[in-house]
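Moderator note: this is an archived Q&A kept for reference. The question asked for a predicted structure of one protein chain; the sequence and the answer are reproduced below.
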Amino acid sequence: MKTKKDLLYSFNHTQKRMEERYNIFIDNKDYLEMCDRISCKRNVKFISEKRQKNDIQQIYHIPFKGNTIRVVWSRSDKRIKTALPTPD
């Protein structure tokens, strides 16, 4: 059975990756704020986009808690899907 990747799944996955990759804990409020910033293109930097089967996923850099976080944004779902490691 395929996992339904809803808002809660995306939040939990992003929260886990933020802790693993940046040693930053985020709560639901932080996640929604970051999503809002990307949605409004406020204090974010667009990096690239890639067409998927049913979506376009975009990569953004977001200044957050003293770090620059690299995230994947789903245009169709209008939410962050994961946090990526920053390239060196």
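Archived answer notes: Residues 7-84 form one domain.
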